[in-house]
Each structure stands twice: as C-alpha cells, then as structure tokens.
Amino acid sequence: MGDRRIPFLKMNGLGNDFVVWDARTEPVRLSPEQVRAIGERENGIGFDQMITVEPSRSGADAFMRIHNCDGSEVDACGNATRCIGRLLIEESGLASAAIDTNAGLLIAMKTSEPRRITVDMGVPRFAWDEIPLAEEFHDTRAIELQIGPIDKPILHTPSCVNMGNPHAIFWVKDIEAYDLSRIGPLLENHPIFPQKANISLAHVISDTEIEVKVWERGVGLTRACGTAACAVAVAAARDRRTGRKVTVHLPGGPLELEWREDNGHVMMTGDTEIEYEGLLDLDTLSFEKTAPGDKPMLEVVK
C-alpha cells in the first residue's frame, strides 16, 4: 500500500486560519466528516477554512475551493484569497495572480511588503435576491429585522450586502456590548437568509476607521473575515457613514479597504502568514509538522 500521507500548509490572514492543499497535480478528496475532523482544534489540525488549490478551467492561475470547518463548501473568503494569492505570486515571481472561485475571478497583487497582499474582491451586490433574502426589500441599506423584544430589540435594522457570500451588518456603539457567540447563530440561521449569513457588529470610529466583530456562517466567531470587512466598508460608504477608503479593525488586526468609484470594485489589503508545513495521514487523520513557515514558494506538492 502506498504512502497515505499528504502534505499541507497551515496559513492565516490576521488570525483567520487555513489548511491549504495543493491539488493541481493530484486531487485531494475529503468527505465532510473528514473535513470536520481535521478542522477540530482539540484533536485535529484546526482551521476556520480548508482551502484546496486546484487547476482552473478558465485559464486562471488556479481554482480555489473553500470549505468551512463544519464541512460545508462556500464561495468566497477574502483572507484565504490573499494567502493563496501570495503563494501563487511567490511561485511565479510575477506581480499578480488570477484566482478562480465559485464567486468569480479574483486578482491578487503583491505590495512592497512580501507578506502583504492586495486583492480585487470584485463588485458588491445589493439587490435583495442577489444577497439573497427570503423576501423583497427595495432598500437593503437597512432591512426590517430585529432580535429581542419588539419594543426593545437587542439588535435591529441591519445593512445587507453580498461580497461573494451574504452579509448582515448591525451598526452599534460598542461591539463588545453584545454576546455575539449567543446572538450570532440565531441571526446566521434566521429564515430571512435562505443561504444563511455572516453576521457583523460594526462601530464607526471616524470617517476612515471602523471596528468590527464577526460571526462567520459555518465557522463561528472568527478573528478576521475578509469578505465581512469588505461588506462593512461598502455598507458604511453606501450609507454615508464613512468615506470609500477605510481601515477596518478586526480582532486579528487591520485591513485596508477601498471601494473604488471608477469601476465599483472593492480592493482589500492585509497581511498573510505561513505558520508551518505538515503531513496528514489519511487513514488516521493524525498529522505532523515538517517545517517552519514563511518559505518563499508554494511547495506543498513536492
């Protein structure tokens, strides 16, 4: 019987962490049960998302497949796009990389700092059936939704945006004043969101700064969510709470966001980190670390 161990990289973007498989030459096929087991932080490798780098059918540098730690597949992840973009850019030596996803084609670009990557996250969508919502709202800057007593709701009137996945943003004065670990699951699974939703608490500090805390669908509380940061920045500018260029402060660190006026695209810039390389045994799902992080190229296939 051949070697049943497969190599991986452990990476993170502002603490939003990933297990990365290079499946461009050999497919990596894992069941939802295996994904959940690998994603467990006590007994597995532990991750927020599992990323499989596959051949692209559209001519891009690679296709990025994304699974949450609950085993579900999702279409977009901004922090993962930066991480995979960094790997592909370092591998090719070029200034950018085209990454195909289920949410569309995304372009990652290097900056003057090797670990810092900019990603063109594309154009946000605001129509109720594009987010999607279960019922029609003409203005998704503030939809009719609340949690708690009718006369004194805990949270209410969120802004909704699709950034490759659905987001609901609640504007608050203090993001720590709410138990998002308790409220998040209720809102994520609210009937108004047929595909569930990422839930953010956002506090506008100034015209250029926003503080954000995120409950990510299929994951839970996370130190950083790139698409949520994009959604918050866009929703804030759309409602004239801020300008179109802001720093979004997440528990894991800051992301720089710009919602461009010329083409409507959202540009996201932030740090990435390669934590270590490892080998996973497919039979036992045990793993070992084989090398420290921050190697110059994507070498998990070798």
TrEMBL record:
<protein>
    <recommendedName>
        <fullName>Diaminopimelate epimerase</fullName>
        <ecNumber>5.1.1.7</ecNumber>
    </recommendedName>
</protein>
<feature type="binding site">
    <location>
        <begin position="216"/>
        <end position="217"/>
    </location>
    <ligand>
        <name>substrate</name>
    </ligand>
</feature>
<feature type="binding site">
    <location>
        <position position="198"/>
    </location>
    <ligand>
        <name>substrate</name>
    </ligand>
</feature>
<feature type="binding site">
    <location>
        <begin position="78"/>
        <end position="79"/>
    </location>
    <ligand>
        <name>substrate</name>
    </ligand>
</feature>
<feature type="site" description="Could be important to modulate the pK values of the two catalytic cysteine residues">
    <location>
        <position position="167"/>
    </location>
</feature>
<feature type="site" description="Could be important to modulate the pK values of the two catalytic cysteine residues">
    <location>
        <position position="216"/>
    </location>
</feature>
<feature type="active site" description="Proton acceptor">
    <location>
        <position position="225"/>
    </location>
</feature>
<dbReference type="GO" id="GO:0005829">
    <property type="term" value="C:cytosol"/>
</dbReference>
<feature type="active site" description="Proton donor">
    <location>
        <position position="77"/>
    </location>
</feature>
<feature type="binding site">
    <location>
        <position position="49"/>
    </location>
    <ligand>
        <name>substrate</name>
    </ligand>
</feature>
<dbReference type="InterPro" id="IPR018510">
    <property type="entry name" value="DAP_epimerase_AS"/>
</dbReference>
<keyword id="KW-0963">Cytoplasm</keyword>
<dbReference type="GO" id="GO:0008837">
    <property type="term" value="F:diaminopimelate epimerase activity"/>
</dbReference>
<feature type="binding site">
    <location>
        <position position="16"/>
    </location>
    <ligand>
        <name>substrate</name>
    </ligand>
</feature>
<comment type="similarity">
    <text>Belongs to the diaminopimelate epimerase family.</text>
</comment>
<comment type="pathway">
    <text>Amino-acid biosynthesis; L-lysine biosynthesis via DAP pathway; DL-2,6-diaminopimelate from LL-2,6-diaminopimelate: step 1/1.</text>
</comment>
<dbReference type="InterPro" id="IPR001653">
    <property type="entry name" value="DAP_epimerase_DapF"/>
</dbReference>
<keyword id="KW-0413">Isomerase</keyword>
<feature type="binding site">
    <location>
        <position position="68"/>
    </location>
    <ligand>
        <name>substrate</name>
    </ligand>
</feature>
<feature type="binding site">
    <location>
        <position position="165"/>
    </location>
    <ligand>
        <name>substrate</name>
    </ligand>
</feature>
<keyword id="KW-0457">Lysine biosynthesis</keyword>
<dbReference type="GO" id="GO:0009089">
    <property type="term" value="P:lysine biosynthetic process via diaminopimelate"/>
</dbReference>
<feature type="active site">
    <location>
        <position position="77"/>
    </location>
</feature>
<dbReference type="Pfam" id="PF01678">
    <property type="entry name" value="DAP_epimerase"/>
</dbReference>
<feature type="binding site">
    <location>
        <begin position="226"/>
        <end position="227"/>
    </location>
    <ligand>
        <name>substrate</name>
    </ligand>
</feature>
<keyword id="KW-0028">Amino-acid biosynthesis</keyword>
<comment type="function">
    <text>Catalyzes the stereoinversion of LL-2,6-diaminopimelate (L,L-DAP) to meso-diaminopimelate (meso-DAP), a precursor of L-lysine and an essential component of the bacterial peptidoglycan.</text>
</comment>
<comment type="subunit">
    <text>Homodimer.</text>
</comment>
